[in-house]
Every structure is written in structure tokens, then in C-alpha cells.
């Protein structure tokens, strides 16, 4: 039973989402403020954080940054329509995905299960541990290290790196990555990919402006290498 911590200040939305997710088999704890949400994290120990972007007092972006500073907990943001600027900030802060409100419970449920679904990028035909320069990827242990130092990657960052590195030199469009990494089967927002790439580069590249591992091919997408 997936354990979900919902942080949402609107009591009607909070109660509706909580009830709907419980009916679909989730163990849900809810909080109305960012401060209460952070306090509930240690006690409840959720599998995923469902976080409203616009919270009173401590905003969802601030909560996201605090969580991401010490945890790889998957984070999905809830945002109102038209909050494009805040969505970008939230993605840059470390959120793995976002959902625009109002959203049907089945949509939220499907997105939660997609984020939590175990990665299968390294399941067949590839060595368990791969070394690229100073970057080491353990596909079985799902860990990444750089120059012998373990890296802390958010779930979306790890999934993206595993997917790209499974096919070095192959170029993936943003839509292909959205389908294969985020499991979005519709034409979704490419900013999810761009923000995740930027965060990943900040952790694995020596020179962000001259990336060695995750490279951009303008007008086409991203690829791993050349090395």
C-alpha cells in the first residue's frame, strides 16, 4: 500500500484527494501547511510527497527545497492553472513531476503509481555496473557515484540517467523521454525534461556549460555522450 503525504491548504481539495486516493489503495496522511507537512515526514515516512505549490507561510517550493536537501523522496507538485513561472521554480527545486488542479483522482493515482513504479532500464542485456570516465552507474543497486563519491539523485534524475545511458549516442526527443521516463502517454510539458536535465548536469558534470555526459542536440533532444 503506497504511503502518500498530501500537503494542501484547501480543505475541500485536501479531503477530496485524500478520500479518493484511499479508495484506490493508498495510505494517505494529510497536512494543511508546509510546516505541518515537514513535521509529518519523519513520523509518517511516506513513499511519496504530493505537494501543493501555493501554500500559506512556507510555500511548496520552500518545502520541496528542504526535502530535497537531504532526501530522495519522490515529489509531485499540485499547481493551479496559469502558475507557469512557479512550476519552473518548483521543478528546479527538485520536484519529479507536477499535476495541474483541478485533477481527477484517477489521474493523480496514475501519476503516483508511475513515479513509484520500479525502474526497468537496466533489467536485461547490460552489466550491473558501468563506468564512464569518473562516473559510475550501478544499475542493480540504483546508485551513482562521481570520482568515487556517492551522488544523491532525485528519482526522476536517476531514471533519466539510467534511460539515457542505456543507449549511448542515441538521441531522445523530449516527448520520448516524457513517455519512457515519466510515463506520460500524452503530449506533456517538455519543461519537466529540461529542468531534470539541468539538475542532473549540476550533479554529474564538471562543466555545466560544456557537458560531457548529457548533451543537447538543438531541435532534436538529448543524448548520453559522446564520451
What is the topological layout?
Blueprint: E1 3-7, H1 11-23, E2 27-31, H2 34-44, E3 48-52, H3 60-68, E4 75-80, H4 84-93, E5 97-101, H5 105-116, E6 129-132, E7 135-138, E8 143-146, E9 149-150, H6 155-165, H7 174-180, H8 191-204, E10 214-217, E11 221-224
Parallel strand pairs: 1-2, 1-3, 3-4, 4-5
Antiparallel strand pairs: 6-7, 7-8, 8-9, 10-11
Give a quick precis of the structure.
The protein has helices at residues 11-23, 34-44, 60-68, 84-93, 105-116, 155-165, 174-180, 191-204; strands at 3-7, 27-31, 48-52, 75-80, 97-101, 129-132, 135-138, 143-146, 149-150, 214-217, 221-224. By secondary structure, the chain is an alpha/beta fold.
Polypeptide structure, described:
With 227 residues, the chain is an alpha/beta fold. It folds into 2 domains: 1-116, Response regulator (Rossmann fold, 3-Layer(aba) Sandwich); 127-222, Winged helix-like DNA-binding domain superfamily/Winged helix DNA-binding domain (Arc Repressor Mutant, subunit A, Orthogonal Bundle). It is 38% helix and 21% strand. The protein has helices at 11-23, 34-44, 60-68, 84-93, 105-116, 155-165, 174-180, 191-204, and strands at residues 3-7, 27-31, 48-52, 75-80, 97-101, 129-132, 135-138, 143-146, 149-150, 214-217, 221-224. The chain has a 5-stranded parallel sheet with strand order 2-1-3-4-5, sandwiched between helices. Helix 4 links the parallel strand 4 and strand 5. The protein is globular, with a radius of gyration of 18 Å.
Amino acid at each position: 500500500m503506497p504511503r502518500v503525504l498530501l500537503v494542501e491548504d484547501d480543505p475541500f481539495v485536501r479531503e477530496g484527494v485524500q478520500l479518493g486516493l484511499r479508495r484506490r489503495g493508498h495510505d494517505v496522511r494529510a497536512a494543511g501547511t508546509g510546516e505541518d507537512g515537514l513535521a509529518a515526514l519523519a513520523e509518517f515516512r511516506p513513499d511519496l510527497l504530493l505537494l501543493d505549490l501555493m501554500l500559506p507561510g512556507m510555500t511548496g517550493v520552500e518545502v520541496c527545497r528542504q526535502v530535497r536537501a537531504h532526501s530522495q523522496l519522490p515529489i509531485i507538485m499540485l499547481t493551479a492553472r496559469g502558475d507557469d513561472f512557479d512550476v519552473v521554480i518548483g521543478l528546479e527545486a527538485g520536484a519529479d513531476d507536477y499535476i495541474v488542479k483541478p485533477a481527477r483522482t484517477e489521474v493523480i493515482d496514475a501519476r503516483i503509481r508511475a513515479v513509484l513504479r520500479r525502474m526497468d532500464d537496466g533489467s536485461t542485456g547490460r552489466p550491473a555496473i558501468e563506468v564512464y570516465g569518473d562516473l559510475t552507474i550501478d544499475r542493480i543497486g540504483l546508485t551513482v557515484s562521481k570520482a568515487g563519491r556517492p551522488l544523491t539523485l532525485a528519482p526522476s534524475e536517476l531514471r533519466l540517467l539510467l534511460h539515457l545511458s542505456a543507449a549511448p549516442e542515441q538521441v531522445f526527443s523530449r516527448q520520448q523521454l516524457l513517455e519512457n521516463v515519466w510515463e506520460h502517454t500524452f503530449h506533456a510539458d517538455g519543461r519537466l525534461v529540461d529542468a531534470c536535465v539541468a539538475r542532473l548536469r549540476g550533479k554529474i558534470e564538471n562543466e555545466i556549460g560544456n557537458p560531457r555526459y548529457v548533451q543537447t542536440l538543438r531541435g532534436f533532444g538529448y543524448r548520453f555522450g559522446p564520451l
